[in-house]
Design goal:
alpha+beta, Aminopeptidase, 2 domains, 8-stranded mixed sheet, 15 strands, 31% strand, binds coenzyme A
Length: 318
């Protein structure tokens, strides 16, 4: 068995298989379009690879994707080392080939290849939809995963934000956000955030539904970015940098109002320690064990904290 970086034709061939796992509610043709568009996006063009595990005859046994993302490691002296982390996505083995250890082997080989070829590699990260056991075998540690669900806001907002953000405002919004004061963190760039909005645009077009008018808001020094996940009827908060409890409440109210106007059912915020107590005090927020997308991290170098001590904002999902 050996590892291959897929060419364009091989990627499209894999899309036909992965439709079974990730296609609904799109048709096969729509899903193929979705995949082509997502791969054509600048973030994917710059940072995505599709990996195949092949047998000696060249038959594909299993596949996955990696996306490079920025990460920062702080030494004990406070010195920052910027590096690369790799989000692993779309791990897929055809049903007839499952249970032979192929996905495990692929995870091991991809991590070894990244360690070997990427001098600035910090970590491999994935969001498991199949629990922790499979990836735990390949050295991934899980982090706790809780979500906050907020109902949409159909009445007038009680708090004002300074402005709503549009797609073109994402780079400036990210610039405003404080980087976490922690030993290690993952940080998206503007194209990476826009990739989530590209997903929103694709689903809005294919499912013929309106996009939210805004993809974020600012109030004072605080900023939020969000995106619609049309197939789930949710607005997901991608990044939230709230400097006070009032700001957090105002930004989330703005998100809830936008979700209502776009015909969505709720707002979902991935729990992070910085904002958790404030969100918990919102009268109608409920804390839910996350269904899928369990963050897991495999260090690709020494000196990283345990996965449980790392923050995973939703913008870092792929
Ligand atoms: C998950 C998947 C990639 C595993 O591929 P595989 O080549 O069979 O993987 P391996 O043989 O290395 O490991 C199989 C293990 O995965 C576990 N697994 C597979 N699907 C699972 C699920 N839905 N929930 C929990 N565990 C699951 C199997 O139970 C098995 O565990 P065990 O060996 O401890 O008994 C494959 O089942 C698949 O493509 N599923 C559909 C797409 C998907 O969900 N991908 C994962 C996204 S995070």
């Amino acid at each position: 068995m050996h590892l291959v970086v897929a060419n364009e034709a091989q990627k499209v061939e894999r899309d036909r298989h992965t439709y079974a796992a990730w296609g609904s509610p799109l048709t096969v043709e729509q899903f193929l379009q979705r995949e082509l568009r997502l791969r054509a996006h600048p973030w994917s063009q710059a940072h995505m690879r599709t990996w195949l595990l092949c047998d000696d005859s060249g038959r594909v046994l299993t596949s996955c994707e990696t996306f490079r993302t920025g990460s920062v490691l702080r030494g004990a002296d406070g010195q920052e080392s910027p590096g690369d982390s790799f989000i692993i996505a779309s791990v897929f083995t055809e049903p007839a080939l499952r249970g032979h250890g192929y996905a495990t082997r692929l995870m091991d080989l991809v991590a070894a290849e990244l360690e070997r070829t990427e001098p600035q590699a910090h970590a491999a990260v994935l969001y498991s939809d199949v629990g922790a056991r499979l990836y735990g075998r390949s050295g991934y540690q899980e982090a706790p995963a809780w979500d906050w669900h907020l109902p949409v806001l159909s009445s007038l907002a009680t708090r004002q934000v300074d402005s709503l953000l549009e797609d073109a405002d994402v780079p400036a919004a990210l610039e405003r956000m404080r980087r976490p004061e922690v030993p290690f963190f993952l940080w998206p760039d503007a194209p990476q955030v826009d990739w989530h909005l590209e997903r929103e645009r694709i689903y809005a077009e294919l499912l013929r539904r309106p996009r939210p008018r805004a993809c974020g808001a600012v109030v004072g020094a605080s900023t939020a970015l969000w995106a619609m996940v049309a197939r789930l009827g949710e607005l997901v908060v991608l990044m939230l940098d709230a400097r006070s409890e009032d700001d957090a409440a105002a930004l989330l109210e703005a998100a809830r109002a936008q979700a209502h106007k776009a015909g969505l059912a709720k707002v979902v915020l991935w729990e992070e320690p910085g904002t958790m107590p404030w969100v918990a005090r919102l009268p109608d927020a409920s804390r839910e064990a996350r269904d899928g997308s369990l963050p897991m991290l495999r260090p690709l170098r020494a000196g990283l904290p345990a996965a449980a001590d790392i923050h995973f904002p939703r913008a870092l999902w792929a």
